[in-house]
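Standup, Tuesday
Yesterday: got the pipeline producing structure tokens again.
Today: sanity-check two examples.
Blockers: none.

Example 1:
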Amino acid sequence: MRLKWFPVASMCAVLAAGSLSAATPTGLGTVGGQVLDTKSKPVPDARVTLQDSEGGHLQTTQTNTQGHFWFPSLPEGQYSVRASDQGRISEWQQNVWVSPGRQTDVTLHLRPHKLGSCAAFLEVVPCANQH
């Protein structure tokens, strides 16, 4: 009896695998993952930034209620990913390789900002005229 069910189960597994890979267009991949706090708890509504290895192709997204994020339909190549929210930021996770038809998983850990270490707080103001 078991042998009769084996071909049916095998065919279902092949069809299921085919439907999963069809979610990503041919030649494109996905970066996905989760943002966690210092206690390894998910961070909802964190901003996640993706950048290609040449400093271009910048994209942003928000994490869901479980701290998960996705960047679908990416060309094959190398990327960097970073997360931030109010007063916290992760390190850039570099050398994230995207392969066609696959998802590359990344876990980002938010840490409190260190004063003076973030260039995003730099403000350029004009100097007063000196005569």
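Example 2:
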Amino acid sequence: MGWYQKQKRIYESRQQNHEHDLPEDEVVHSEPKKEDMTKMEENKDAQQPVKPQESASLIGEHTEVTGDVSTDDDLTIYGRVKGNIKCSKRIQIYGSVEGDILCQDASVIQAEIHGNIECKETLKISQESTVEGNITTTALENGGAVRGDIHAGGHIRLSEKSQVSGDITAVSISVDQGAVIQGCVMIGIQDTNGAQKEA
């Protein structure tokens, strides 16, 4: 029997649902081509649910925003903002802000801030950064210049290049040699009522 007849017979038997009656040597098993396998893998990946990526908002270097900014995303500022900022996540500032800032975490990196900062967790201020305003945070790492009062519910670290002109209140503080403080420093622990106790 020729190849064509064998294939025809296989086809007809499958149509009649009698493939099991055929001898094993007459059943042709074909392996899928590599191209088909690749397409099947691509389709399989395409059917997988796509996880949403963490989103972030960006204000570019040559951008100036006038007015208040509010976001639930991470925020990075290279440009200038003239207005208050409210961010429920992390802010990174490389540009300048004229207004108050309320956020979860913040990094001020060679930037200029004219306004108060309220940070629920950690605020980091790098060298060559300036902040003119009061700071309220849980923890502060300062390497820049701050002109205003600082209140930290936790630890403050002032590096050798930091300059503070204002009163400091914190649970604990570490000051590197070379740091400058012009103001009162109150260190202690908070009791359950939130009142400051002198150490």
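Quick observation on example 2: Helices lie at 3-15, 34-47. The chain has two helices and 23 strands.
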